[in-house]
Design a protein that fits this description.
By secondary structure, this protein is α/β, with parallel strands linked by helices. It has helices spanning 19-31, 45-56, 90-100, 121-129, 161-171, 189-196, 227-239, 258-265, 297-302, 307-315, 336-346, 377-389, 409-416, and strands at 2-4, 10-12, 33-39, 61-64, 67-73, 84-85, 107-110, 133-135, 141-144, 153-155, 176-181, 200-204, 207-212, 220-222, 244-251, 269-274, 280-286, 294-295, 319-323, 350-353, 358-362, 370-372, 393-397. It is built from 13 helices and 23 strands. The structure holds shikimate-3-phosphate (S3P).
Length: 420
């Protein structure tokens, strides 16, 4: 894709439905009793891979526009005739593993070139402690049936919602009390949604308690718009002069929206109009003069998927920005810790990669270059914005990776751009 420096972006944009909640809606709907309706479902490669995998496991679903209706199987899935291919979806694969370890048949879970390199010991260890027969340091994962699972008390060695959620899904099928303790909290959509589906789950401070063996009941899930999708536009409008955008109905879960707090800390001009549910709201963002900031600990994890955008914003901010506590970025759809630094530096940024983050000196004007998303959707979209603020021409290879989470990203962006 050839990208040329752009004009300001203005107007109102409705970004697509939340990816994390769409995955969980499918998975919880599949194992519940009765019907589940998902409204504003994200139609993108990742979530459709999870939908196809569940259909192969005997879960009937119908789709009308962005509404998915699931006929829940009350934990009685059927063996798939072929290995389950979750494509690029780490959430799909890890959470589905948590369901399949309790099923009375064998399964194989695999994925695309990126997913088969991602670490799985992080789920294999706790699920094995529960008595599951699951093997594979990386996909393909093989799961064999066991007579029963046992509850565990698990102290999370890393902050990971995918690992936590795999344990919760296994625990829901395991009579007795499983506890999970988090030192730093990861996104809590699974906890919130298990409660909505009638599961016995409580959260007290850092500890989650799941009492297994109770039924889940199908429900209607109104999926908010994806904060991580909105974040690309929050970043772009902040750094492209004269921009102003309105983003309605964006999910504002505290554990997801750390990027809002970071942008404000950096002098970003953002107003939040909360909806009556307090869980979502309208974001109004204007171009601003950003300043550098220090980001660590819980705030880093609350902005996990948006850290590439923090780096891009920091290249345009006055002063130094230090991000720490982000070593998990090495294990995402690509090694984001390394690739964000090397690709933005190729465009003129001054980013030093550290063992768990970056030191960024700004502001640095960016210039066009040949860059690659390496098949990582979030890098593709971040680099597109970098190309829009760079002088000269940027060539972005593997831009189509954006379809993993946001198929209309480029056309949405182009529509908002003021025509000169
Ligand atoms: C996700 C959890 C996060 C995030 C990913 C989606 C989820 O990963 O990076 O894009 O939906 O559970 P962690 O498992 O590292 O928290």
């Amino acid at each position: 894709m050839k990208i040329v420096r752009g004009n300001s972006i203005k107007g109102t944009l409705t970004v697509p439905g939340d990816k994390s909640i769409s995955h969980r809606g499918l998975l919880l709907g599949a194992v519940s009793r009765g019907e589940t309706v998902l409204e504003n479902f994200l139609l993108a490669d990742d979530t459709l891979a999870t939908k196809t995998a569940l259909e192969s496991l005997g879960v009937p679903m119908t789709q009308k526009g962005r509404t998915i209706t699931i006929s829940g199987q009350d934990w009685q899935l059927t063996k798939s005739k072929h290995p389950l291919d979750l494509k690029n979806a780490g959430t799909g694969l890890r959470l589905l593993a948590g369901i399949l370890v309790g099923q009375p048949f064998s399964s194989q879970l695999t994925g695309d070139r990126s997913l088969i390199k991602r670490p799985m010991k992080r789920i294999v260890d706790p699920l094995s402690q529960m008595g599951a027969n699951i093997t594979g340091d990386t996909p393909p994962l093989t799961i064999l049936p066991v007579k029963s699972l046992q509850p565990i008390d698990y102290l999370m060695p890393i902050a990971s919602a995918q690992v936590k959620s795999a344990i919760i899904l296994a625990a829901l099928q395991t009579p007795g009390k499983t506890t999970i303790t988090e030192k730093i909290k990861s996104r809590n959509h699974t906890e919130e949604m298990v409660k909505q589906f009638g599961g016995d789950l409580t959260v007290e401070d850092q500890k989650i308690t799941v009492v297994g063996g109770n039924k889940l009941s199908g429900t209607r899930v109104k999926i908010p718009n994806d904060f991580s999708a909105a974040a690309f536009f929050l970043c772009a409008a902040s750094v492209i002069p004269q921009s102003q955008l309105v983003l309605p109905n964006v999910g504002l879960s505290k554990r997801r929206s750390g990027f809002l707090r970071i942008l404000k800390q950096m002098n970003g001009l953002i107003e939040i109009e909360q909806n009556s549910d307090k869980l979502s709201g309208t974001l109004i963002v204007k171009a601003s003069h950003l300043k550098g900031s220090h980001i660590s600990g819980q705030l880093t994890v609350d902005a996990l998927d948006e850290l590439p955008l923090v780096a891009l914003a920091a290249t345009q901010a006055q002063g130094s920005t230090i991000v720490s506590g982000a070593s998990e970025l090495k294990h995402k759809e690509s090694n984001r810790l390394h690739l964000v630094a090397t690709t933005l530096n190729k465009m003129g940024a001054q980013i030093t990669e550290t063992s768990d983050g970056w030191q960024i000196t700004g502001p640095t004007p960016l210039h066009g270059a040949e860059v690659d998303s390496y098949g990582d959707h979030r890098l593709a979209m971040m680099l597109f914005i970098a190309g829009k603020i760079a002088t000269g021409i940027t060539h972005l290879t593997n831009s189509e990776a954006a379809t993993v989470s946001y198929p209309d990203f480029f056309s949405d962006f182009n529509r908002l751009e003021e025509k000169s």
